[in-house]
Specification:
Elements lengths: L12 H8 L3 H33 L2 H36 L10 H13 L1
Helix pairs in contact: 2-3
Length: 118
């Protein structure tokens, strides 16, 4: 495998600001409206199921199913979160020290900032 030099990384934050200036309000609006529509879609399905189960006289069964799904989601989320955090901890611990990658200085600064966030 040939080793090519790393391409230059000219990062100018003002260029992003210029490109997003007119679109910023639409991006923010989309970031607000999309989750609202997703939550409404989920709530519609849950409410419809609740009405059907209660009409059939199985409201307790629906509550049990919904509670079980919710608990299993949070247990799975906690398990995956623990695995990801453990991996990030060990990776950060094993990679501490000087960086031997041929990266530009500004890229190294961005990577260090991302590591601080994580």
């Amino acid at each position: 495998m040939a080793s090519a030099p790393f391409p230059s990384f000219d990062f100018d934050p003002s260029s992003i600001k210029d490109k997003l200036s007119g679109r910023k309000k639409w991006i923010v609006l989309a970031l607000i409206l999309v989750p609202i529509f997703v939550l409404l879609w989920l709530a519609r399905g849950i409410f419809t199921d609740y009405l059907w189960y209660s009409k059939m006289g199985f409201e307790d069964v629906f509550i049990t199913i919904l509670l079980t799904k919710t608990i299993l989601f949070f247990v799975g989320f906690a398990f995956v979160l623990a695995l990801v955090l453990a991996n990030l901890f060990f990776v950060n611990r094993k990679t501490a020290g000087p960086l031997d990658a041929p990266l530009p200085e500004n890229m190294i600064g961005i990577i260090k900032k991302l590591l601080v966030i994580v």
